[in-house]
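User: Hello! My lab partner asked me to get a predicted holo structure for this protein. The small molecule is zinc ion, SMILES included with the sequence. Please write out the structure tokens.
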Amino acid sequence: MDPVRVLYIGGLGRSGSTILSRALGELPGFCHVGELVFLWTRGAMENHLCGCGNRFHACPFWTDVGKRAFGGWDAVDPERVAALQRRVDRTRYLPRLLRRRPPPEFAGRLGEMADVLGQLYQAIREVSGCPVIVDSSKHVSYAAVLRRVPGLDLRLLHVMRDSRGVAHSWAKKVKRPEIVTEDAYMARIPIPKLAARWSAYNGLFDVLRLFHRGGMTLRYERFVADPEDTLRRISAMAGHEMRPGDLDFVEASGLRLSPEHSVSGNPMRFSEGTVPLRVDDAWRSAMRPRDKAVVTAMTAPAMLRYGYGLGGGERRSGGGPAQSGSGGESRTDGQ
Ligand SMILES: [Zn+2]
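Assistant: Hello! Below are the structure tokens for the protein in complex with zinc ion.
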């Protein structure tokens, strides 16, 4: 049987990954399923809203997936799988996950988790009929777990956005519409902590890319500047040939998006119709100069490496590892 191809969107939250994933989900042959890292908790256990508007257990797509994968969600114990996941899918386990031969006890747990995930992704492919599954889980450790799933062909897309924009976004208060039983808000992170996390998190993806060939690095700003070219390049990286008309949903005023069956993620996953595609650069005027200076100073080395200018634009010249390859906006390999 053909391996199940998974296009994995990795990176720090609020980097534009939700709208990018939804755009990819509009491509024929691509199925965007949201952040599957949270399927066992927010989906199977807590019954949050799917992107289609149904609660998880009332959604026909996920009901079918559960039946195909396990004989129904009643036939698996999501709490047990979630507990198993916590014992393998942690950033601190990355060194073990990346070893060719992990320690035997850890390898046992990892193998058990990988078997469950193998059945899950296989069922998603069968139910959706799509050769490419787009998983926007973002976490680096979950990507490292997926690498160990037999029969899964993982393509990594590491997405990043200007650190000042990301920090400003994490400092804001945003409601979570998928929780209907109470008022819940997305997590907020103080500016200096976020700046440290931005560098560390993106750096971990650079490390993962050293072990995993087949993927690319993308600046969100580049996607906004030329969505069609970016989607064409991602599609090629995912091994999928585009046909005329595949990009008709990209309009001058934004992206025309249809409902989809996504588990968890940014509130933007519920938007339908034409959604504007823009770089949210409110940080330029709304962020306090001191905060801006802190984030810039703390993330400068990585920002320059990825081709960002510290003044807020693109680097026009200069060397550095991220400038090699295809003009600084992305590095691609394994194609
Ligand atoms: Zn659904």
